[in-house]
Amino acid sequence: MSDASLNTQTQTGEAGFGDYFALLKPRVMSLVVFTALVGLLAAPVDVHPFIAFCAVLFIAVGGGASGALNMWWDADIDEVMKRTASRPIPSGKVAPQDALAIGITLSAFAVIMLGLATNFVAAGLLAFTIFFYAVVYTMWLKRWTPQNIVIGGAAGAFPPMIGWAVATGGVSLESVLMFLLVFMWTPPHFWALALFMNSDYEKAGVPMLTVTHGRRSTRKHILVYTILLAPLAIGAGLTSIGGPIYMTVSVVLNALFLFGAVKIWRRDEDAASADKYRSEKSFFGLSLIYLFLHFGAILVEATLKPYGLGGW
């Protein structure tokens, strides 16, 4: 974000608690909290409930901090896009310098406290996640390459790995597979959104794949990534975090996801536009529950294991 953009921002009203909380991207934070909690509980090491609570809290704060830094840097394009124009900075409710201060302060607080409460492997992963999202994705990739979502998706994929590290102090095949599940899900999820929100990205000058390569290419990319995602998601069910419940959920969801991706790939652009991108919106809606149900199934398997019911 340029200094000129910072200077041209004007306050239209006094900010309230809700405005500052919105800086933390609570919807994104909820996904961070959930996947981190699942990673923590699915690990083969028990964690004291109070330490687990503190760990998830600090991970959430770190995720919120990166969201504030993202909003600070992207205020100029948020102002242009209809989907983001009401955010605290472009709406004039929060000053850009305040968002920057909040983001930096909360980042340092979250990383230090997570390290003190658990271990420095988890803290290091959290620090890298914040850096990756705020610097690598937001400041570099997002405005530079149509692969922004592909590479930048790593930032949203780290929380379950951080949760696992909280419990075990390290990284394993299971935590890597949870990372890959989120990482490979991110591109088709966001590209489906871009198919029916393309005008926003064009106005903002963001090189989303739909803008640089067109909708036809984007549809092919969605199909390819969905095909690559399916074996990873189902394969995770063969490890210690899986079991019959997870496997059933994963097979059904990935069959539906593949069907939706094929349907999108086969569509003619005129037909898609005529029915207001109904299939794309349906696929996007499915993508929202896809990740939740996969991690929900991992959580169920972990919860049932002490009773001899979960897992293989």
From TrEMBL:
GO BP terms in the entry: heme O biosynthetic process
UniProt KW keywords: Cell membrane, Heme biosynthesis, Membrane, Transferase, Transmembrane, Transmembrane helix
InterPro entries: Protohaem_IX_farnesylTrfase, UbiA_prenyltransferase, UbiA_prenylTrfase_CS, UbiA_sf
Chief localisation class: membrane
Cellular component aspect of the GO annotation: plasma membrane
Any one GO MF annotation of this record: protoheme IX farnesyltransferase activity
Subcellular location: Cell membrane
Transmembrane segments annotated in the record for this chain: 28-44, 50-73, 94-114, 148-167, 179-201, 222-239, 245-262, 283-304
E.C. designation(s): 2.5.1.141
This protein's pathway: Porphyrin-containing compound metabolism; heme O biosynthesis; heme O from protoheme: step 1/1
Catalytic activity reported: heme b + (2E,6E)-farnesyl diphosphate + H2O = Fe(II)-heme o + diphosphate
Membrane topology category: Multi-pass membrane protein
Alphabetical list of PROSITE patterns matching this protein: UBIA
Coiled-coil portions: none
Assembly: Interacts with CtaA.
Family per record: Belongs to the UbiA prenyltransferase family. Protoheme IX farnesyltransferase subfamily.
HAMAP family reported for this sequence: CyoE_CtaB
Note in the entry: Carbon 2 of the heme B porphyrin ring is defined according to the Fischer nomenclature.
Protein name from the UniProt record: Protoheme IX farnesyltransferase
Organism per entry: Thalassovita gelatinovora (Thalassobius gelatinovorus)
Origin organism lineage: Bacteria, Pseudomonadati, Pseudomonadota, Alphaproteobacteria, Rhodobacterales
This protein's encoding gene: ctaB
